[in-house]
Each structure stands twice: as structure tokens, then as C-alpha cells.
Design brief:
Strand 1 and strand 2 form a beta hairpin. The protein contains 10 helices and 12 strands. Helix 4 runs antiparallel to helix 5, helix 5 packs parallel to helix 10 and helix 6 packs parallel to helix 8.
Length: about 425
């Protein structure tokens, strides 16, 4: 149990850290990518408003007025760069080209004067690919493109974003490396220090388990003496309801004590089990047959569907106790005239056992999740006439767990309770 607690602590811590780092680093990279795209789109917007070229002239002054240009320069006031937040070097740093297409997608002209890596043929191919895609903007390789409608056709403008995308990829790879390295480092620290963290819980649990074991053995002795004295008193005085009640309660306390000791033993890190291969189908048929009498005496129907010749390697005594607990609960808590169904079959590489019984009242969802809790009984009145005290299903769960199996409760219909056990063969 302590190993499972430690594993859950490490898993929960790693999951929380992974999510936090993912949000932080993912957010940083998302903002970085968005900044790259927005800068590229801003430049493309300026190029689109000036027929695929930067406007001739200097950026405006800080107050928004245009700078005076030398004679002969054509200043386009509406295409100034200052309002877009560009530096004076942006026109010289940007590499771009454009292709003009008519309404049918035919090439009318190309302008590759501001880029050396692309010739007119390649530019025309890229433009045709963009035209076929039907997109107005996006990425084509390392180029961000924008389709701008002009009077004589559609101009597709491409901006080389290779440097920006390379920087983005570098940051992304660095983030992934830091993410994995951080997870690995924290995992190593958790493995080292988690033992100390769970140590108080481990010590408390071990003391509790040891107390149950020691107290159980100490209680056994006075219970044995009380039972023996009750038998002697019955021989001397004859049978009476008081002595019968004493003997009945001693039997219940003895059974409870034995179950608590058994649970404590099963909760050990390595419970001592005698694993042997035995014919599970035959054992199941034998146990079902032993419950036919009590079922008929209570006017209940017990039916079995057991696949023959199934064997299992495990503790035969524990498996017998598991089956007895499930059948005893099914017979005990089904109403008069109820139906109990037992099935055993092989499913892939596992053995599947199911025990179903009708119930007096519909089974609620919270009962299904609590049915394996210690001292929990679906009969909220805790009527002692049933003879149980709420440890049977906890013992069943412990037996299945040490055999590396799974057990769960479900209610396929309102008044039907099914216990499903799956163990590897």
C-alpha cells in the first residue's frame, strides 16, 4: 500500500508539473509565433497597399507629419512605415516578391527584384499553388503570403520569414528540451525525497496494521476462554437463551477478529501466498454446489455457467475464500425468490468471474463505489440477522489485488448487483 501511495504521489506531482510547464512554455511559444505572424502580416499589408513595394520616402516624424523628401522622391503619405511601428531598416531587411494574376489565375507579371533566392519561374509556381488553395493569406514553406486585389487582377505577395521562423523553431526546441529536462530532474528529486515524504504515513500505517494484528491475537485468547466457559456452563445448567446468545456473539467476534487479521496480512507489501496451479472450473462448481442448499432453503434460484477445463495459478485457499465471499453475499442479500447467477469464462489471456444477484431495492451509484470499503454494508440498518459485518468485500478486493487482478461492482439494471472479477491466467 505504501508503494502505491508513493507511486500516486510521484504521479500526481509529475502530472501537475507537466501541466504547469506545458502552459507556461506553450504560452511563451504561442505568443512568439503570434508575434512573428503579426509582424509579417503588418509588412505584407504595407506592401499590398503599395502594389507589392515599400513606399518611397522616409518614415514620418514622431508627431505623424511626413518628413520632407529630396526633390524627385515620390512620397506616399498613406503608406508611411512609422504608423506600423517599423524601424527605418525594415525596407532594407525584408526580402519579398510578388506575382500578379488575372481573374482566371494566369500570370500577368512577376517582381523578384527584392529577393535573390527565388526566380520568376519559382515565383510563378508558388503563386499558382496559392491560387489553387483558395487561401487569402498563410504560409507556404518559409514564406508568408497575402493576396491583394488590384484593379487589373490579384497580386500575391510573398515575404521571406525564414529568419523569424528559424528563431521561433530554436526557441521551440529549447523549450521542449527545458521541458523534458525539468521533468526528468524533478522526477529524480521526487524519487529521492518521496520516501521521506511518505515515511510518516508509512509509519502510521505500519503501527495501525501491527496494532490490528497484535490486538486480534490478544482478543482470541479471552474469546476462546469465554466460548469454553459458555460450553461448560451449558453442560452444568442446560441450554438457555442467555448462553446461546453468548456463544453466538463469541462466534461473531471470533470471525471478525480472524477477518481483521487476514486483512492485515493481505495488506503487507509481500503477503505470503502459496501459488500453485489448480483446476479453477472444478473448484468453482464445487463451491456453487455447496451454496445450492442455502439458496433453496431461502427459496432462491442459483444458476451457474462455468466454462470447463479452466485452470489458474494462485493461492487456492484464497481463491476459494474469494468465491465463497461473493456467493455468500449474493445469497445473503438477495430477496426471497431472487435469482443468483454465476459465470466463469476465459477472455483473451484473463479469467473473468461474475456473480449477479437481484436486490430488494435499486442499487445506487454511491453504493457501487463504497461496496469495497471496510465495514460498509448496503443494508444500512446493519441487521445482524444477515450475519455480516462489512469486511467480506474488502477481503475479496485484497485477494484479487494480490493476484494482480481487478474487481468492480456494477448495476446493469435497477434491481441487479453484479460483481466482476478479472485475473490474469
Amino acid at each position: 500500500m505504501i508503494k502505491k501511495l508513493r507511486a500516486k504521489f510521484i504521479s500526481a506531482s509529475m502530472l501537475a508539473l507537466a501541466l504547469v510547464l506545458l502552459v507556461i512554455l506553450g504560452g511563451i511559444n504561442a505568443m512568439n509565433y503570434r508575434k512573428t505572424v503579426s509582424d509579417a502580416d503588418a509588412i505584407l499589408s504595407v506592401l499590398a497597399s503599395n502594389r507589392g513595394m515599400f513606399p518611397q520616402g522616409m518614415p514620418p516624424e514622431e508627431d505623424g507629419s511626413l518628413r520632407k523628401e529630396p526633390p524627385g522622391n515620390n512620397v506616399l503619405g498613406d503608406g508611411g512605415l512609422g504608423k506600423h511601428g517599423f524601424s527605418d531598416e525594415t525596407p532594407y531587411e525584408s526580402r519579398f516578391y510578388s506575382v500578379l494574376l488575372n481573374e482566371t489565375g494566369q500570370i500577368l507579371g512577376t517582381d523578384t527584384g527584392k529577393i535573390a533566392a527565388v526566380n520568376e519561374t519559382t515565383a510563378a509556381e508558388y503563386a499558382q499553388e496559392v491560387w489553387s488553395s483558395g487561401k487569402s493569406r498563410g504560409f507556404l514553406g518559409n514564406y508568408r503570403f497575402l493576396c491583394s486585389t488590384e484593379s487589373n487582377g490579384t497580386r500575391v505577395i510573398f515575404l521571406d520569414c525564414g529568419r523569424s521562423l528559424s528563431s521561433f523553431r530554436t526557441v521551440l526546441l529549447a523549450s521542449i528540451f527545458i521541458y523534458l529536462l525539468g521533468l526528468l530532474a524533478v522526477l529524480m528529486l521526487l524519487v529521492i525525497f518521496s520516501h521521506r515524504i511518505v515515511m510518516p504515513a508509512a509509519e502510521s500505517y505500519e503501527k495501525q496494521r501491527q496494532f490490528i494484528t497484535d490486538a486480534g491475537h490478544e482478543i482470541k485468547t479471552p474469546l476462546t476462554i469465554i466460548g469454553a466457559d459458555a460450553d461448560l456452563a451449558e453442560l452444568e445448567c442446560g441450554e438457555n437463551e442467555w448462553l446461546s446468545d453468548i456463544k453466538h456473539q463469541v462466534t461473531r467476534l471470533t470471525g471478525l477478529t480472524n477477518d481483521l487479521i487476514y486483512l492485515s496480512r493481505m495488506d503487507e507489501e509481500r503477503p505470503q501466498l502459496q501459488r500453485i496451479e489448480f483446476p479453477l472450473s472444478d473448484v468453482m462448481e464445487e463451491i456453487v454446489q455447496s451454496f445450492q442448499g442455502p439458496a433453496k432453503a431461502q427459496h432462491k434460484e442459483l444458476a451457474a455457467d462455468i466454462q470447463p477445463l479452466l485452470s489458474f495459478t494462485g493461492d487456492e485457499k484464497a481463491i476459494r475464500q474469494l468465491m465463497s465471499i461473493l456467493l455468500d453475499n449474493a445469497v445473503k442479500y438477495s430477496p426471497e425468490g431472487g435469482i443468483i447467477t454465476v459465470r466463469l469464462e476465459k477472455e483473451n489471456r484473463s479469467l473473468k468471474l461474475s456473480v449477479s444477484n437481484t436486490t430488494v431495492q435499486p442499487v445506487e451509484q454511491d453504493q457501487l463505489t463504497r461496496i469495497f470499503d471496510r465495514f460498509y454494508r448496503m443494508d444500512h440498518s446493519r441487521n445482524s440477522a444477515t450475519g455480516g459485518y462489512g469486511l467480506g468485500m474488502s477481503i475479496a478486493q485484497s485477494i484479487v489485488t494480490v493476484h494482480k487482478g481487478k474487481i468492480r461492482a456494477e448495476s446493469p439494471a435497477d434491481n441487479i448487483l453484479t460483481i466482476l472479477v478479472t485475473v490474469p491466467q
